[in-house]
Amino acid sequence: MNRIKGYFIRKKSEYTGSHRSYSIQMTISISFTIVSVCSVCFLSIMLYQQFVNKTKDITIERTEQVLNQAAINLEDYLRNMRRISDAMYYTVIKDKDLGYESMGEEMNLLYEANKDNLISIACYTNEGMLVAAAPVANQKENLNVTEREWFQEAVSQMENFHFSTPHVQNLFDDPSYRYYWVISLSRAVELTNDGKSTLGVLLVDMNYSSIEQLLSKANKDNTSEYFYLMDSSGEIIYHPKQKLIYADLYQENNLNAVRYDDGTYEEVFDGERRLITVKTVSYTGWKIVCVTPITSFQMGITDMRFFMVMLVALSLLTVVVINQLVSAQIAKPLQKLNGSVKEWETGNLNSDIYVGGPIEVEHLGRALRATVAQIRQMMQDILVEQEEKRKSELDALQSQINPHFLYNTLDSIVWMIEGERYQDAVFMVTQLASLFRISLSRGRTVISVEDELKHAGNYMNIQMVRYKDVFDVKFEIDPEILCCCTIKLVVQPLLENAIYYGVECMDGEGEILVKGYRQDEDIYIEVRDNGLGMPEEEVRQLLKENHRVRKHGSGVGLINVHNRIQLCFGELYGLEIESVPDEGTTVRIHLPYICYSEKTRDKLEAGKWRGQ
Amino acid sequence: MKKNRIYIGCLTAVMCIIIAYASYGMLNKGQEEKIYPISVIVDNSSSDRWFAFREGLKQASRDYHVQLNIVSTGELSNLEEEKLLIQRESENGAKGIIVQMCDGEGEEIFTQVQESAGAADILLVETDVQPEGIFPAVIPENYEMGRMIAVSIKEDEKELTGKKIGILMGHKERLSQKQRLKGFLDEMEDTGAEILWQITDNDIVQSKQLETAEILVALENDETERAVDLLTESGIQSCSLYGVGCSEKNVYYLDKKLIKVLIVPNEFHMGYQSVAIIAARLQDHMASTQNSVVSFLVVRPEVLYEEDIQKLLFPLVQ
Fold first, then answer.
1. Which of residues 215-254 of B touch A (CB under 8 A)?
2. Which ipTM score applies to this complex?
3. Considering only CA atoms, which of A163, A149, A148, A166 is closest in space to residue A246?
4. pTM for this one?
5. Same domain, B221 and B86
6. How far does B26 lie from chain A, in Å, by closest CA?
């Protein structure tokens, strides 16, 4: 059961799979072609069948006509034979008294008048004695006609004529060695001998050739249709292949056909389908049968069959071509539309969506074009929104630094003024003013490395005053990088971290080194301290978003700087941290080498540098 | 798209093939049936003796749609004469030749006759040639026919010892005659009957020879007729005649009881079968060429008019 289910599922998936791969033109073309083929084939078969039936009807009709004609001719012939017999009986035999008269002369006259159809006329007494015969001939020796079938039938049914089946006449001696096939017409007659009535038999031997000629005319056609004649018991009287039947070289279905009434029947005989038309000849009960093999009239319609096949093939060919043209015409706008959608799919957002074709496709194109325009607008809006978001995020990050630093510095200045260190306070305020000037930078976020380092210097000067030379700071900057771009306030938070976490509690032994250099197309600014350092695990956590240590300051220094750099220059850049416990920490700022100019600054601030 | 083009291309190709086939069928209609000319060369072809044979030929020519030409011949006495006739018929366009050979022996017969026939197919009737089987042949059971004459004599004569028998043969070179004679002699062996003389068709029969013989055996149609004529002319009534034949004259003599037993080969069948075989060979050259043997009837006057006998013995239409 599961196997069967699996089979059907497989078949279904195969079907749906293959169905999907058809193009619209192919689907239309195949559908039209299938419908057309079915229609044309159906019509052709119907027409052909009609033609075959009509041909069959015509054949049967023609056969029946020929058969009727043959029957009429035969009946006419047999009627003539009966008339001869009647003439002989009623005009000769009945008028003669055999005691003193002979009927030979009249019999001869009658024979001579009909000798084309007759072999002989003879009259016998009830005892089988020959009374008279024409033509005059010697009767064979030791002949006993009373044993003959024709004689016995005439005597047994005296009121009727009796027709025998064909046989060789065996009554008279013919010195020319000729033997004739005859059909004997016998009847009982009343003979008068010396005034006494006695029974006798009149025999008219009809020449079989006459019947043979009569029926062979109907068989003159060269078709395989033929006619044959049989008596009421099925015994064949005439058949175009009679000798073959006698020699057992051919067989006929006469014993079955004799049971048929008049009409047309279909039968299978000897492996052959054939039509049998039967017509009964009046008086004798003989039957003329016409045999038409089904193949014979099928041969007649072979031409028609070829013609039909050619017509169907031509129609189909035309239909296929027209289908192709029509389906192409229908599918063309859809294919164009599909093409422009595919181009759009490949990433060409500016591709033109096709609008044309029938109303439906045109509407589809228009709708799609409007949708694409809408999507394009929405994408633009998203970009602008993202940029806005980035800027506001950057601003927010920067604003996290300023209050933190300001608080510390002002705290230091307050502390100086309270300690009456006015000179230092003035220095601090001056440095702070310079620091804020750079910090503000007229609202710009991108400044030159030189300004950034100056800002870092101001900051360190302030811190040095605050921490009273607890640590030493040194700047080693490659002049080549001073003209490069950086975002502002990236070095200062690192210095702040180096002070708070590195050298704050080292009692004058702390050292901070700020080193700037170029390497290939990148620049690096390192802030190195010899402070406490930290384990590697802690280093890995420093630049993670969720790791925020709030021991000193805002606690957002490193991750803040790292995110800002990446927001501006891309994810390839940012901070790199190396630290060894009890030896110190190095935080390296990695930036691209971009010369500072108004153009590059604007570009960076507009966020168009990333991803280039 | 590409699939679509392949499908349409295939469909178009199929349609074109069907159109070509139908056109070919329409144009070639009527040319399918060839009518082959076939010639028949038999000894004394207009003789009544061939009546049934001719009927068979004609019937078969209608059934197998062949054009039949029965060559008018006199008495064919030698192979050279027959070869000339065969050559002439072949040159006249005969595709098949049915021939009754008068000479029956020799390896070279095949080559000589085949050369004369050219491309025409040869089929032998009535008699084969030695070695047998080199040509397809339709022949009666010659040996059996000869043997059945002897069997009939044995049935009629209670005692054959010392009975004197005279034999009339047809063409002595003809294999059929030799086979009939052998069949007869084999059956008569050890009966004590004495074969007084054997005479062939060219020999003259002396009245003394007729007088001495008690039983006459004729192994060929014309010889049977000759025997009756000789017996009638000489007025000899004590001599019983057993013969082979199928002419109406012989049947008449049988009817008149001048012949005691007549062996009648089914020559209608022989004629029909010979055309059927050669037509089959012409239509299909690979057709079988095995010899075909036709049966015969043993007819006595008493059964002459029996239904089955008369159907085979007497021609339907005169």
1. 248-249, 251-252
2. 0.84
3. A166
4. 0.65
5. no
6. 6
